[in-house]
Amino acid sequence: MKKLAVLQSNYIPWKGYFDIIHDVDEFIFYDEVQFTKNDWRNRNKILTPQGDIWLTVPVGMNKIHRLIIDVAIKDSAWQRKHFKTLEMAYHKAPHWKRYAEFLAFVYLEKTWTYLYELNRFLIEHISHDFLGITTKFTDSRDYPTHGAKHEKLLSLVEAAQADLYVSGPAAKDYIVAEDYDAAGIQLVWKDYSNYPHYEQGGGIHYALRLRLGLAL
């Protein structure tokens, strides 16, 4: 049985995103869809002793009508700022040293042209190198698809020859479950409830509302 998940790339996603990757045999990045403003594609939150702080990758928010794969990063000035913010917030955390070299490479040595390239690099390396996930990563453009929205997604799942499709619960707004059943594909809704809290240092605890996936 082939298990599949399809999601847009996000900027340093939260735990649930990596759990979905872990649950499947193949994970398809679905970045040939509309970029959404003020979403998790180019920003995320971290928790600090002073409260929540947004980390936002500048992508020219005045350009609304574009696909995620076409979103260019304006400059590289933000990279050092993001690294320094992470370092200041987490340098005393139990696992900071485990990630410091990797984060320094991402933010201080690399220069990123497109948002999806940055997001995918982070997601794939965190999955494989730190979480030990062996899931195969592919691109939706590797498969023939047709239609739009629900129909396009279903055609992608079919083209990938999936027997079971794992989806986040937010997709219930547009997925027609009956169509998956008719296609002989088992549809599973990911359950994010009852995630444990863990210490992040300085009395800071992980909570579901916080989005950063690294176990710092």
Report on the architecture of this protein:
- This protein has 216 residues and is of the alpha/beta class.
- It has helices at 15-23, 77-90, 96-109, 115-130, 149-159, 177-182; strands spanning 3-7, 26-29, 43-48, 51-56, 136-139, 164-167, 186-189.
- The protein is built from six helices and seven strands.
- The strands form two sheets. A five-stranded parallel beta sheet has the order 5-2-1-6-7. Strands 3-4 form a two-stranded antiparallel ribbon.
- A hairpin with a 2-residue loop joins strand 3 (43-48) and strand 4 (51-56).
- Residues 204-212 have low confidence and may be disordered.
Layout of helices and strands:
Blueprint: E1 3-7, H1 15-23, E2 26-29, E3 43-48, E4 51-56, H2 77-90, H3 96-109, H4 115-130, E5 136-139, H5 149-159, E6 164-167, H6 177-182, E7 186-189
Parallel strand pairs: 1-2, 1-6, 2-5, 6-7
Antiparallel strand pairs: 3-4
Helix pairs in contact: 2-3
What's the gist of this structure?
This protein has 216 residues and is of the alpha/beta class. It has 6 helices and 7 strands.
